[in-house]
Design a protein that fits this description.
33% helix; Rossmann fold; 264 residues; alpha/beta; seven-stranded mixed sheet
């Protein structure tokens, strides 16, 4: 059976297993229904450093880079100094992470999808007391850029067909987040500039969630105004699938309100 394999690397944007109203709209499930084998190396609350050093999945520590190979099999080589993972070395052993229906076949292509950063922003919110400039300089620092770039570089080495996904703004009409509108606007510009620089450097596509899910449209958000709705996750899955079928290296993608995938 022919199929594509995809690694999901990041935070709650890719792991909506606890927030989806209907479980059929969990991102990994949607992608599996599209015929993909999905390895979920993402988790709500993950920041860049924890993504690099290891996240907890099913009670065990998982270092995402150690789990990826371009041929779809697992790798136990240490990355960033991490070691002593107690995982077997066969793909079939990862049934708790991936779709069990396709693990006995060889994938046509292997992809990685990266989305991380929201938790890093949350951690830096207290620095706003010292001003907006201090917030941005502490968030997107030279060290942060270097770590993020190295992570993308190492993922691309294993899966050249990699997709970067941006952050998105929470729903911000007449609520707590509205007072941060100007800050969010500048964050969008700075964050997209960072990701697009990575996209150009490594010739990989970028999905712009800021543009796909406007912060003034309630239908894209859950009742908490922060997590993406089931509709949004279905849209995200369609964008990922579209890019995988039409992989052209660097471009920026979004989905319009008529649910058409656009490229620019």
């Amino acid at each position: 059976m022919k199929f594509n394999k995809v690694y999901l690397l990041g935070d709650g944007t890719l792991d909506n297993s606890k927030t989806a109203i209907e479980k059929k709209y969990v991102l990994s499930k949607i992608l599996e229904k599209k015929g993909m084998e999905v390895v979920s190396l993402c988790k709500e609350g993950t920041c860049l450093v924890s993504l690099i050093k290891g996240i907890e999945k099913h009670g065990k520590k998982v270092v995402p880079l150690n789990m990826i190979q371009s041929d779809g099999s697992s790798s136990m080589r240490s990355c960033y100094g991490e070691s002593e993972l107690s995982f077997p070395s066969t793909t079939s052993s990862f049934s708790s992470f991936s779709s069990p229906s396709t693990t006995s076949s060889t994938p046509v292509s292997t992809y990685s999808v990266i989305c991380v950063g929201g938790e890093d922003i949350k951690k830096k919110i207290p620095t706003l007391i010292l001003g907006k400039d201090n917030f941005f300089s502490s968030l997107i620092s030279k060290d942060y850029l270097a770590f993020y770039s190295k992570f993308v570089h190492d993922v691309v080495k294993k899966t050249p067909k990699t997709i970067l996904i941006s952050l998105y703004s929470p729903y911000s009409v007449k609520n707590f987040y509205q007072k941060y509108d100007s800050l969010i606007g500048e964050l969008e510009t700075r964050w997209m500039t960072m990701l697009c620089n990575f996209g150009k450097k490594y010739d990989i596509p970028v999905i712009n969630l800021f543009k796909t899910f406007p912060k003034t449209h309630k239908r894209y958000f859950m009742d908490d105004n922060v997590h993406l709705s089931d509709l949004s996750m279905d849209m995200l899955a369609k964008m990922i699938s579209h890019i995988m079928k039409n992989y052209h290296g660097y471009s920026i993608y979004y989905m319009d309100e008529q649910f058409h995938v656009k490229r620019y």
